[in-house]
């Protein structure tokens, strides 16, 4: 069977450093931090008082206020970013579009956490009478994001949400890629969204001791690969990509950002929250992606790493990269854009895949900001793209995302050539 080519024809982003693709990319290249004190709730009793919230975002600017009340924030973010990507791709204007062959595969690690929190709070402070909002369950369930996108546009192709913690939206991208190249769909809107900057999200991750507690300097708290890193910074938002079969895109004269070459998936089979100390799962998923893409390690120019700014995770990922790439690792650019966006959990893979697509398109590597002190446990001869963006030819980029439970994913994109 001859597999079909898959290209990226639309992008959308809603991030702590920009509410559009243009704003997001400019902020990445400028090395802008999205971390700041939390404004959503009283943080006086929390160990961590900051996060990467969205800025200057009002859902009423995008969705009718009455309709928005029926949606958890993660679904709101999904609709906004998907709408950006669909508009960018211009697919709904294509007269020969077969809606039965346009799908939506989304990713979210948690789903409607805020909705669950609000409904539980109202029940437990009451008299025990179950007065639940009729939209409680439809707002909370993770799959609803893909449903809302398909309902808005009438897309009747494959429709579901992947849930694999922080690897969720990369899993969604890989599934979309596979279905299109197998001929099961012409177009799939994919990506992910997350909205966990709330009391339960912050409290839960604090209890895990996963978050940075650098409350005195939020903007420099996310510092991947730095000696003094002390945990990740929680972020929120979403990212969307329109993946399309190559011939379908050419026939309608679509603008093509990049080509998707392959994806890899693996499991650590090691620990509930900690990575394998030697990066075995991370190594295996990168090897699987390279094999799927039918390229060698020496073909890769840039890796957008998972790079969460945790003491164990950063070390394990570097070990995995060195195991896979050998001497070529010293010729790569490596960067963690989480140093700017924070960790968007289930949406991380989407916004970071977009960073790879734009790096390939523009021949610019976004930086890893907030580097102050080298960690002697890491090989500092590697090019971590510290503190400033770097210009170089970027033909192939790889994006890594790993999740609690040992879920590992990698996706590879290539500069588009007919």
Walk me through this protein's architecture:
- With 418 residues, this protein is of the alpha/beta class.
- Helix content is 32%, strand content 18%.
- It is built from 13 helices and 14 strands.
- β9, α11 and β10 form a beta-alpha-beta unit.
- α3 packs across α6 and α7 crosses α13.
- It is globular.
Mean pLDDT across every amino acid position: 97
Give the helix/strand class: alpha/beta
Number of strands: 14
Count of helix runs: 13
- Pick out the low-confidence regions: none
Main sheet makeup: 10 strands, mixed
User: How does the overall form come out from the CA principal axes?
Assistant: globular
Tell me the distance between the termini: 21 Å
| Spatial order of the strands forming the largest sheet | 5-4-6-7-1-8-14-13-9-10
Rg from C-alpha positions?
A: 20 Å
The arrangement of helices and strands along the chain is EHEEHHEHHHEHEHEHEHEHEHHEEEE
User: Strand percentage, roughly?
Assistant: 15-25%
Helix content: 25-40%
Oligomer: single chain
Would you kindly provide a brief summary of this structure?
By secondary structure, the chain is an alpha/beta fold.
Secondary structure elements and pairings:
Elements: E1 6-14, H1 21-30, E2 36-37, E3 50-51, H2 65-68, H3 73-89, E4 102-107, H4 113-124, H5 136-140, H6 144-153, E5 159-162, H7 168-181, E6 187-194, H8 199-207, E7 237-245, H9 246-251, E8 258-267, H10 280-293, E9 302-304, H11 311-325, E10 333-335, H12 338-341, H13 348-362, E11 364-365, E12 390-391, E13 396-403, E14 407-415
Parallel strand pairs: 4-5, 4-6, 9-10, 9-13
Antiparallel strand pairs: 1-7, 1-8, 2-3, 6-7, 8-14, 11-12, 13-14
Helix pairs in contact: 3-6, 7-13, 10-11
């Amino acid at each position: 069977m001859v597999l079909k080519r898959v290209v990226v024809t639309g992008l959308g982003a809603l991030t702590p450093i920009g509410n559009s693709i243009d704003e997001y990319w400019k902020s990445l290249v400028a090395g802008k931090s999205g971390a700041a004190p939390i404004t959503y709730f009283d943080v006086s009793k929390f160990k961590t008082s900051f996060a990467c919230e969205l800025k200057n975002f009002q859902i009423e600017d995008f969705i009718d206020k009455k309709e928005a009340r029926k949606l958890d924030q993660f679904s709101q973010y999904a609709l906004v970013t998907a709408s950006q990507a669909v508009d960018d791709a211009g697919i709904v204007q294509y007269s020969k579009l077969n809606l039965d062959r346009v799908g939506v595969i989304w990713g979210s690690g948690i789903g409607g956490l805020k909705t669950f929190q609000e409904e539980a709070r109202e029940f437990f402070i009451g008299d025990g009478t179950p007065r639940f909002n009729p939209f409680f369950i439809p707002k909370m369930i993770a799959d609803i994001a893909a449903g809302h996108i398909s309902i808005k546009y009438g897309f009747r192709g494959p429709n579901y949400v992947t849930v694999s913690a922080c690897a969720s939206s990369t899993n969604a991208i890989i599934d979309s890629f596979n279905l299109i190249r197998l001929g099961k769909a012409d177009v799939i809107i994919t990506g992910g969204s997350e909205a966990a900057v709330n009391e339960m999200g912050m409290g839960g991750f604090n209890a895990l001791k996963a978050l940075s507690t650098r409350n005195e300097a939020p903007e420099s708290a996310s510092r991947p690969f730095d000696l003094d890193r002390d945990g990740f910074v929680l972020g929120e938002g979403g990212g969307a990509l329109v993946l399309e079969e190559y011939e379908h895109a050419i026939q309608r004269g679509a603008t093509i950002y990049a080509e998707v070459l392959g994806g890899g998936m693996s499991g650590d089979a090691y620990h509930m929250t900690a990575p394998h100390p030697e990066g075995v799962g991370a190594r295996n998923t990168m090897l699987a992606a390279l094999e799927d893409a039918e390229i060698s390690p020496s073909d890769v120019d840039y890796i957008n790493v998972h790079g969460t700014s945790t003491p164990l995770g950063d070390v394990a990922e570097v070990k995995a990269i060195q195991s896979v790439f050998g001497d070529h690792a010293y010729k790569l650019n490596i960067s963690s854009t989480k140093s700017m966006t924070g960790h968007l959990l289930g949406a991380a893979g989407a916004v970071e895949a977009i960073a790879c697509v734009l790096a390939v398109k523009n021949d610019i590597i976004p930086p890893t900001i907030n580097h102050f002190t080298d960690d002697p446990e890491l090989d500092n001869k590697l090019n971590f793209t510290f503190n400033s963006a770097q210009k170089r030819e970027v033909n192939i980029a790889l994006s890594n995302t790993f999740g609690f439970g040992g879920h590992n994913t990698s996706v590879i994109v290539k500069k588009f050539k007919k």
